[in-house]
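#struct-pred
JK: can someone run the complex with beta-D-mannopyranose? inputs below
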Amino acid sequence: MSTTDTTTTGTTTRATQRTVRTLHTGWSLRSTAGPVPHEIAAVDVPATVPGTVHTDLLAAGLIVDPYLDANEHLLAWIGQADWSYATTFDWRPDGHDRHELVFAGLDTVATVLLNGEVVAETRNQHRTYRVGVDGRLREGSNDLEVRFGSPVAYADAQSLALGYRPHVNHHPYNAIRKMACSFGWDWGLDTATSGIWRPVTLESWSSVRLASVRPVVTVDGSRGVVDVHVDLERAGASAGAAAPVTVRATVGDVTQEARVEPGADSAVVQVVVDDPELWWPRGHGGQPLYDVRVSVTGGEDGDAGRASSGRDGDGVDATRASSGDGEPAGDVLDEWSSRIGFRTVEVRVEPDEVGTSFTVVVNGEPLWIKGANWIPDDAFPHRIGRDRYRDRIEQAEFGNVNLLRVWGGGIFESDDFYELCDERGMLTWQDFLFACAAYAEEDPLRGEVEAEVRDNVTRLMTHPSLVLWTGNNENIWGHDEWGWERRLDGATWGLGYYLDLLPALVGELDPGRPYAAGSPWSGSLDVAQSDPDHGSVHLWEQWNRKDYPTYRDVVPRFVAEFGWQGPPTWSAMTRAIHDEPLTPESPGMIVHQKAMQGNDKLTDGLLAHYRLPDEIEAWHWAMQLNQANAVQVALEHFRSHAPRCRGAVVWQINDCWPVTSWAAVDGDGQRKPLLYAMRHAFADRLVTIQPRDGGLAVVVVNDTEEALAGPVTVRRVAYDGRVLASEQVSLTVAARDSVTVPVPSAVAAFGAPESELLVASLPGVTRGLWFPVEPRDSALAAASLSTSVTALSEGSGSGAGYRVEVTAGALVRDLALLVDKVDPAATVDEMLVTLLPGEAAVFTVASEVVVVGEEFVAQRVLRTANELVG
Ligand code: BMA
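RT: done, structure tokens with the ligand placed:
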């Protein structure tokens, strides 16, 4: 909507259609109070809108990059300071009745002034603010200023004003409606920035505007039904505002309309699409999306039919099918468009023979969720453009992920994120923004919560990819099991949001979309949120205390979080950290390790499996490999227990800066070995060997729509390649099913466990392996590899990549090419490959650099588990 449509009335030109003008130019930034270095206090800094104080100061060369070294601490003053953004814009009367400044995101403690007059005070990063400025605009130049108070000072003051509430980390982020992780997290740096982080526009309109549009989509047999709920705002008592208008909704090529009489301000237009093509998650079908266009017209549109009723049964006339081309007859006053998909969704949290299920069902088909948790992809989220979202979602696809959970300590994700997920069949779930803390349920917080939920549910409910809203991250669990109850001393803590307010708002605005009170959610307050038989759980004991084989001690119904730390890629780590010497505990490395006792947990988690290297590149590889191994063990175990277990959501797919964390893709957007482990464990067809009933079993999982049949061969193989025992079992695995076959005892009878393994093979599927002892207790010898590297483009210019062939002379485990060490932009198609003696693997390296190909097989690049043993 950026066109101005004018009609001539008498001698004046009168605007009709709403106009939207972005106000993103000419901004400058200035500090106004706080502990600001004097060379910055004195200057006007060119400012980018959307943007933040940090990124503006960085662009101006006034601060160091907070992502590098120990710089985070040097910049803590920014969040303690007050700032002012200012610009000017020209304005001429344009014939419109109403003028509004619309801020899609102010972060956070903001006072808006137009021509020196305060027009708004805002306290919520997650809301959209529409500020009426009629009579306050000047013909000619206008001054617009947004003053930001220190979010640190505000949160501190509010934490007393609202009353103390428990939280994790060092700031009371639960006392301010600002992205919780902007105050630091166990993977995130503390920025506490301020800024105009989403677009700001000047909107002008006359008569009537579309205040909100919510297409509620249902599938009723062979009919796709879209109830388009429209709220109108009328421009006071002007002539146009007092006239009837027509609301017209088009879905695909079907149009319906309703006449709305003066005095009414809402309508529901029902559009029925016969035999709609269904939208499916990736791996289950296609993603047809239907355009939805809604307009409101006034003026000479005398022929709108009169039949049904709108709000309270009066004021709105019938909806009727349009016979023409769907083009509105009168003046178009406002328009809105989006895309929807036709699909049904349920999340079945129901009592069953085990306890309580947690099953996502789309179009009647129960799914196995191969998920990953999503955090803001940048500590300054305005920097995440559509291309970056696309890259990251493609990486999730590479990891065979089918659902991204948007975690509640971040943001309501952007339209770009959700549109891309819709297009690609990537399911999404959005937490409401409460994380690891208790929250006051009284005003002013309560009013802010309701307003932000209304804004964001209305914005996001169009998306077919969105299958679940959840009330919070870990807050019910935290209240019950982390000792909050005593510290609260009777104060409210958020339960009323999770059980009452939020489900009521979802029911009102987005009926039909599943809602769960929290993540985890056992299905009831009477059942512990950590009970694996009930609903969803977050499994953190393994990483924190118990080691990863103990994932196998629990058969959860659904795992909404679990994970294991590892450092970022070598190139990201060394781009960000310049310590000399670089060690796991050197100054920059410690700043980039935020987890409580993180390095101790890394070490403890490694030692049962591998030796702890005392050289940094080997340490880096060991920790990355152990991270990948840990998650792969967990995922294969969870999948082998389908359908009792219905999904696992790995913590976490992405990072917001280069940091040691649980992520599979690091803060520079590069794949860690973990992503390859996820790719393997989340493959549609999986052969895995698992402990069962005191013995071992082969489990074949078939998450495709075709049956899988064939002989499974299980061999016991010595490390030197000799086949010591072999059996074949024929099996058929139905579509979306799995089959468990005990490993015949003769095959499972290890003679020398330290130098034998089991190999289960099924044609066309990656084989499953079982090692009866940990690598460090095994006889795994140094790798004996022969390699050949071929440049894929002969000759000059930028390269087309490399083909790397590796042949194993002896058993080699978890072979990896850390190609980013040669070229940070390089990727390799496969990683973590185990070869029996004599076997070979071919890797394709995508890289545009031209190097001596042998660099890709240098010892520091070509790594194996073998080197961490012995
Ligand atoms: C859970 C998450 C995050 C955290 C992660 C790792 O608590 O919800 O809060 O980053 O574990 O500790």
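RT: quick notes.
The first strand starts at residue 6 and ends at 9.
The longest helix spans residues 616-640.
JK: thanks, will look after standup
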